[in-house]
Amino acid sequence: MSISLTINGQQLAAEAGQTVLQAARANDIYIPTLCDYAGLPPHGSCRLCIVQVKGRNITPTACTTLVEEGMVVETDTPLVKELRVEVLRMLLAEHPGTCLFCPENDHCQDCMVTLRKTSVTTGCRTCPADMQCQLQDVVDSIGLESVAYPVRYRALPVEREDPFFDRDYNLCVLCSRCIRVCESLHFNNILAYVQRGSETRVGTSFGKSHVEVGCSFCGACVDACPTGALWDKTSRWDGKPDLAVSSTCPFCSLGCEVSLQIKTNGVDRIISCNPAQVEKPLCVKGRFGVPELLDHPGRLKTPIRIIQGEVTHPGWEETLHLASEKLAACCPGEAALVVSANCTNEELFLADKLSHSLTGRGTILDATARYGDGIEAVQRLLQTSQSPHILEDADLILCLGMDLQYYQANLEVFLKRAMERGATVITLNEKEHVPGRYASLWLQPGSGKVETMLGRLAGGLGEGDVVDAVKALRTSKNPAVLVGDDYLVRMAGAVEKLVTTYQASVVAVPAEGNLYGALRVATGSTQPVTNPKVLYLLGTAVPKDIYPGTFIIYQNTHMPAVQIQNGVLLPMAAFGETCGSVFDQAGKLRNLTAAVQPSGEGLPGWEIICRLAGLLAINGFDYVSANEVTRDLVSAAPSWQMTGRVPGWLAAPGGHDYLGKPLSDMVAGLKQLNLQVQEGM
User: Fold this and answer.
1) Contacts (Cβ under 8 Å, ≥6 apart) of 628
2) Are residues 522 and 420 part of one domain?
3) How does pLDDT run across 135-158, given as a tens digit for each residue?
4) What is the per-residue pLDDT across 350-362, written as a single tens digit (0 to 9) for each?
5) N or C: which end of the chain has fewer CB within 10 A?
6) Domain range holding 626?
7) Are residues 400 and 495 in the same domain?
8) Rounded to an integer, what distance in angstroms lies between the CA atom of residue 76 and that of residue 571?
């Protein structure tokens, strides 16, 4: 229902249920606030958004006052201004204010040494929120020019022990946004007010680190902080981003939407990766992994030729000529092309076309080594897999092998939302895991007995330690099964049977970023290749036990971990440097965006394949953009086909998260997490 009201003499329309603050924002009327934050219920703790409403003797907060028909609101009267100034002065009594009133403020630039930049956390030189501080914006909007009360500098030590962000509570104004985001949006309750009275501050229980209290490092608290009290280590001193670009996180199959924050100071670079929406958090890898991935010293930046162990850098033309000559000299069955299930659909599509032209067979998918005989069951599960959003409507959720401490931790939000509305959560896991702390029932098989318990559960045998779970599943009207990568690898067949037995919806979440696309786009090889003369590795690791005489064509983003004696290294653009698409675990096509230029001389993967095909005089590779490849890919409408068994020399990648590389080796903070996480990465 539409409501008519007047704000500052301007007649406006608002929706019933909106607050005055929301109505003002919708009409570009600025009202200062610090405690209000997208997705959170109104709080009114900072008191900065006070307004005058005709007919009321009080000055209510705009964030907690609902609009009414005929309401007349004034946001900038002398009384409101006077009260806001006083409220702000009290807030600043415990916040270092040197930077807020610096005489150089109007013409201060990044890295400029000014009076504003002092030696303690009272100035912008040591404040990570320099140039993007919401408190500074509020001070400027209200027009405060000085503090009225002596600043109580608490001299708290900066807490740097956590792997991804630092905490400087000298800069905290107790707005509670970080606490409320953690509790209300993400259901974690990691942060709270500690101490009492004048010693009150934000912190964790008993002064423990975030790792010790079970933080998943989604970074939501960092994003919510308006003052720089919380700031991630990778972008701490980069200042305000110049640009934001939407894309899709590549680090698993969930296809989470992300906002890439870009700094354009001579050389464009990604300084952080944020959730596209506040209500949809990222796991630790998506939130903090991208900048370090792109800037890692192990990036492959130039084409390399290796002959008998001797390394040269001849440039693209000579390197591709050598690769094409080696491929052209191969007889049928002497060459093989292995692709990663983390590649884009465009790379997979072109690689498969190239492989058919050269060898008469499709590509070999490296992921099949991990799944073994269960790959067919995995494929069928993916064909029926649905979005995690279906968990919001399920009355029972069975979690199979989901840890959720760090990896895919954003799925926990769906579980807890479901529990809030009364859904039953049952978890099956032999190890300590996050859902086991709050699930209605934790099925905990002994060592080596997971498959046995899952089999009894799938068979509907209501006896022993699964009797309660079977009863709950049989009486459920809308059950859903959430199955993680570990159980897909080890027992996909049993999972498939369980889903069929109870007619449950399934949310299958493989670790590979584009397994759905790889199984659908790549038509597959039906014949194993033994000791190939040429092995083309697209986005996958170099096998440790490859035949010594094999010539390696290694196309990837980072240097190989295994030393190559004969071959070429082709630098490929990484995530954020190339366009394309992937399928998420529910089969939805998601776009990837090129936010910055490729590192060094790197090229998009699709372009490298097209250049190589051109040198081999193969028709059908005259694409000039990734969008053209996408159109052909979609129009071809490839059907689901199986990749054949992988040859013995292709060892299971185990732990490779992004294009044949373990993220834990490239993102420093991941190494500081516990051993269990490192093994799962």
Assistant:
1) none
2) no
3) 888 888 888 877 777 777 777 888
4) 999 999 888 888 8
5) N
6) 304-367+515-675
7) yes
8) 58
